[in-house]
Amino acid sequence: MTKFFGKLLLLVFGITIIVPFLWVLVSSLKTGNEIFASPWSLPKSPQFVNFAHAWEKGSIGANLFNSVVVTLGTLAILLPIGSMAAYVLVKYPFKGSRLILNSFMGGLMFPNFLVIIPLYLLIARLGLLNTKIGLILVYVAYSLAFTVFVLSGFFEQLPNELIEASFIDGCSHSRAFWSVMFPLAKPGILVVAIFNAIGLWNEYPLALVLAQDSNVRTLPIGIATLTNTQQYAGDWGALLAGIVIVMLPVMIIYLIFREQIQKTMLAGALKG
Amino acid sequence: MKGRARFIIGFLSPALLLYAGLVGLPLVQSFYYSMFNWRGVSPNKAFVGAKNLQTYATDPIMITAAKNQSLLLICGGLMILMFAVSIAHALLVPSKTSKVVQSIMLFPQVVSMVVVGIIWQFMLHPRYGLLISVCRSLHLPIPKDGVLGVTGWANLAVLIAFVWQAIGFYVMLFGAGLRNIDGEVIEASELDGASGWTRFRKITWPLLWSVKRVAVIYVVANVMGTFALVQLLTDAGPDNATQVFLTYMFKKGWQQNQMGQASAIAVYSFIIAMVLGAVVWRVIGRNPENPRRSSAI
What CATH number does the domain containing A83 carry? Predict the structure, then answer.
């Protein structure tokens, strides 16, 4: 009896989760009339033209390019400086290193949109409003908490003997890091990279305030803008196609790296 | 020794400078800015002291926002905990269904909050939505402007979308908690004749204390950080009915150009988040086993 109810619960839960996604996916291949007249049926002939419309008229193509640049740009700065800091904080303890590590961790649970006003004014004063580099620097700063947290755990597990051995081989401090420790931490860095990439790809509030101009818009901002304009223009097919373009890459990456992602989420939650 | 110090400074400063400058400094400035009547970009700043803070203590929309935030926290939190614990239990029995559910349950969490907000907005759309077509085929009545145009219904929609988005993470969390419980404890309780509901109430639930604490803290953080979902699902409407702190702050600061007032909202929201966090930590911060043991001695 309990087993039956458990199965039923899982079934209802699974359907509730997946139906909205399937509806968006199927509707993105329909004409506007089909979406309206027969919401449950499959498209008569798949309207791939919706994707072309979203790409060009909805400027999703340009937004996608911005998203790729911002995400990769952030990772290119974040991963080296984050791992450098994490490494020093756990392998070179000094007076205050614990405090610094804790202040990074303090940022883990913090809803960062709370400080958006001073941040906005700061970025404006620096002349970095509506620039990709401004958004990248802010993203690096707000991704550091999680990155340093996970990577410090990773470096902590690597034995100190490895560093000492590389000193004997004549390595300098930084040489020991770049050619011995950094390569060993690669699995951790990969997880951190995937995790951050998903978060950056999805990020909305900071970009909404700091990079609203049409030439720097990332995908989430682009799709939100498109929602406000297309709904009245009536091109629902293109709009839904745009949403698919935003969500599908993340879902695929998630399915590929599911175990690592879940493990990291749990580790972050249970240790933090 | 000198080389070591230089190495530490060199390796640490890029991250530390960015973090201090773009995270730490704005945090401190939030409090300072809340004391000015100020339009942000203009140099005209008038010191008004605590006036902004006073105004917003009784502002009707602020009170609506506080109510909405409590609704999400209490109703949303309870729904999440209840469903997550039950689903995590059901997932312990290995089956094909449980495998599929485990791989899809985090989808709402990993896609952008923007996508979640827009999908739900579409599903509830008065002309094209999924809900309207279901209601039409079942001959159920539906408000003319759609559910998102009616106070109450719109609040319910935000609540459901919030739970739908968050639940997967908590299922995973409680799943890990349940797997950590020693199998022998469960077996022993079975021998003692405790099973089903009794076992859950007396054994499993108390043993989940550390996971419960994490879950409640995450719920508080999730609720206090709610922004994109409301912004895209209801645009805080109809008529401010679904406003939350951060959407209201955004409206004041960027749509009405009142940076000082927006800062006051941010300060309140920050203080409430801190207080809630501290309360949660104190109430369920300890292992329930420990005080009992010490009082027995």
Answer: 1.10.3720.10
Paired with B38 in beta bridges are B45
| Interatomic CA distance for residues B297 and B284, integer angstroms | 22
- Angle at alpha carbon of residue B288, lines to B280 and B178, rounded to 5°: 90
In chain B, which residues have pLDDT < 70? 1-2, 34-49, 194-195, 285-297
Judging contacts by C-beta atoms under 8 Å, the chain B residues touching residue A126 are: none
Residue type, B85: V
User: Is B266's Cβ below 8 Å from some Cβ in A?
Assistant: yes
Give the per-residue pLDDT at B231: 93
Contact B122 A24 (CB under 8 A): yes
Q: Which of A90, A113, A261 to probe by mutation at the B interface, max B CB count within 10 Å?
A: A113
Shortest CA gap A155–chain B (Å): 15
Residue A86 lies in a domain: yes
Q: Is residue A148 part of a domain?
A: yes
B164 vs A17: CB contact, 8 Å cut-off?
yes
Q: Is residue A234 part of a domain?
A: yes
Rounded to an integer, what distance in angstroms lies between the CA atom of residue B294 and that of residue B297? 5
Which structural domain, as residue segments, surrounds residue A74? Answer: 58-271
Full set of structural domains in chain B with CATH: 60-286 (1.10.3720.10)
- Tell me the torsion sign for CA atoms A202, A203, A208, A211: negative
| The predicted structure's pLDDT at residue B207 | 78
User: Euclidean distance between the first and final Cα of chain A, in Å?
Assistant: 39
Q: Three-class SS of residue B47?
A: strand
Question: Could A220 and B114 be called an inter-chain contact, meaning their C-beta atoms sit closer than 8 Å?
Answer: yes
End-to-end CA distance of chain B: 51
Percentage of chain A lying above the pLDDT 70 cut:
97
A150-178 per-position pLDDT tens digit: 899 889 989 988 888 888 888 899 899 99
B-chain residues near A227 (CB < 8 A): 118, 121, 232
Residue found under tokens 């960015």: B18
Pick A107's closest partner by Cβ from B8, B23, B119.
Answer: B23
Tell me which residues of chain B, numbers 179 to 238, contact chain A at a CB-CB cutoff of 8 Å.
Answer: 196, 210-211, 214, 217-218, 221, 224-225, 227-228, 231-232
